[in-house]
Description:
This protein is an alpha+beta fold. 42% of the residues lie in helices and 18% in strands. The chain is elongated.
Amino acid sequence: MAKVSFRTNILLKSIIGKDLITDDNIAVLELVKNSFDAGSNQAKLIFRDLLTGVSTKDFKKHNESKIILRDTGSGMSEYDLINKWLNIAYSEKKSKKEEFNRQLAGNKGVGRFSCDRLGKSLVIYTKKSGKPLLKLSIDWTEFEKVDDIEKNIQDVDFELDEISIEQYVNETKLEKFVTGTTLFISNLREEWDLSKIQSLKRQLERFINPNQNFEAESFDVVIEADEFKKVELGLSESEKVNGIVKNRIFNKLDFKATYIKANISKDGKTITTTLRDRGNEIFTLTENNVYSLLKDIEIHIYYLNPYSKAYFKRQTGIRSKEFGSIFLFINGFRIPPYGDDGNDWLGMELRKGQGYNRFLGTREVIGRIEINGVEFDEDEDNFFIISNRSGVDNNRHFEQLTKNDSPYGLYFKTFRRLERFVVEGINWDSVPKEIENKIESKVLNDKNWNEEKEEYKEDLLTRNRRVISVIEKIINSKSDEIISLSINKGLVSELANEQAKKAKAEIDSIVGQLNNKALSSEQISKLINELSSSENEIESFPGKENQIELLKKELGTLKSELQKKFGETKELEDETKRLEDETIKLQEELELEKEKNTYLKTSSRTLTEDAKGLVHNIKITSRKISSSIDNLYDKILNNSYTKNSLLKSLGAIKFQSEKANKISKIITRSNFKTDRNAQIADVVLYIKQYIEIYSDIYPRNELGFQIIEENATLTKKFSVLDMSVVLDDLISNSEKADASLIEIEMTNPLKEELRILFSDDGNGVAENFLENEKSKNKIFELGITTTNGGSGIGLNSVREGLKSMNGTIKLIGNNIKLKGACFEIIIK
């Protein structure tokens, strides 16, 4: 059998080109990395002829749009082009880890195929020092013939020519250069409008480590898109695309936010962690590195409170959420998509969902992880970037960095210290709820805004006291792991001075109030509470500062004096109050007796108690006859009557007149007291029928009735006349109280017992009748009235009428069922 080998079909180009790198921005980033690796101090991105005016369909077929990437790096010779650039997957960077005093960014040998992702045609212009200027033209569509099984990738030939610098200038319309490479990509695969270039710019801003941690000169990326310069005149700086791409964010946030930095030394022996808050260092901790695979790593995390988020928007033009969260940089360059909006590569959002008020998420923090000195060697166990540029291999190094449960990886060990500081130390830097949604608008629109205008739920002194008290809990390290710990003594001393000033001011204020005026016990109690609050703050102050110890003694002495004065004042006030209450009570009883005696003097003493009640009832009935006649008169006058309504009104008048006639006859009979029309009937049914008559008498807009019976019933022998008197008097009182609704609720608490709650929505009973049970019972005495102009007969008649049928009545109070008075009637 013959020996066989792999063949490379032309479709391999697409697999490692436009199909492997599926994001245009990542494709550009890969080409920028190549410029960096070539030693250039600048990569210039030039966009031309983007505004084609053709449909998307026609654009896909052919277009004149161009992306040009130009650098002034080392360039390539003919040998380099043929044996390195055209040699698929070859990368000398795998063996050459550093050049031009820089650690190299690329290592796979496939980044060059990003050109295929961006456009169908590529022309490479390149010149190495001492070598001729070369031009290589590639048509990527030659590799996209899917039906040609025989055609290998190496069967496609390209033209490689030597050209003059003048020809280069003429063809590219670019200036001369000494060394470097220009990638002239045309017939673009995607349309590039302003928003797409803005998106690329934002990726580039985050692509280069803001530390510029390179030993040689800095490396800049410049965008040139002349077609959008006029549009940019009306845009903010953050929205403009032309010019140098800069990452200004992280360097400025240190003074706006709470910030933690952790650094593993280059030799991997120690971890140094520094926590800062609003520009002040809180502590610096150096400890032994327990992560055996990690070295030369820095972690920077910023907590953004509502004000920091607003400053971020003012500085960058976008909200922090849209910017991203925690980015990963390896050897100075970002690894996308880690940290992009919506990319929770560290699992912070999942963790936050398990304890919303205890954990921070991607919306509250931004930052970066910098890993330096990584050698991309497949034979070495290290961080390893996946070929399609979609992240880092999840190996042991990655686990020691990112593990989010115990024992925690380096990131979460650092992150949890910041988290505890935010939650337990500064209490989330909370702002008042009423201004939380207005902060961004204030910061962005107020040209004179400064940090002094910030408002928080608690004062700085209270906040910083708690900060100092929780430092040890935040650090949370074993003593044998700690090499050194430095806590900001200046912050503690400054805090003690502020605490002393505050307490001294409170003491002086209290002494001044005691000397200048007589104080009530309530005022003295308030002063004691204020003093106790200061005392608690002083007692719990972290540290033993001299001025704090002196204040403790002064506060104790003053508190004892206040407590003594409080006791004396309270005793005097209590005695004064007792005497005042007795005086008021005696005056009220005297007034009630006057009212009662006035009635007794003017009331006829020749009538029995029962007769007096019936006479009162006649008066009520007469008023109702008069009211019914007035209603009937109005209907006739306004032609708003019908035969039925006339008959109804006349029936009501007849009912009331017969009732009055019957009562007057009863009064004159000799056996009046014993004969009260007693008969066996259902009390509930009688009340319902009687109220229905009332409903017909009153217009609906004057007085309404609502009966709740809940299947109640009570059949017994009773005087229907007495029941009528009871109902008439209660309804009359409701009318006088300006009620518009009466509710009668009837229930059976026991089998042979009926409970009636009579309520209205009137003005209710005066407060002096509601003080106690004795006061409530007074309103049923003869001569005591609850209404203006009343005679004091009605409620007395109600009580007496109920007695005849083994019933009782009592006042429950106001606002029980409706807003007016509520009476409880029990009939057995």
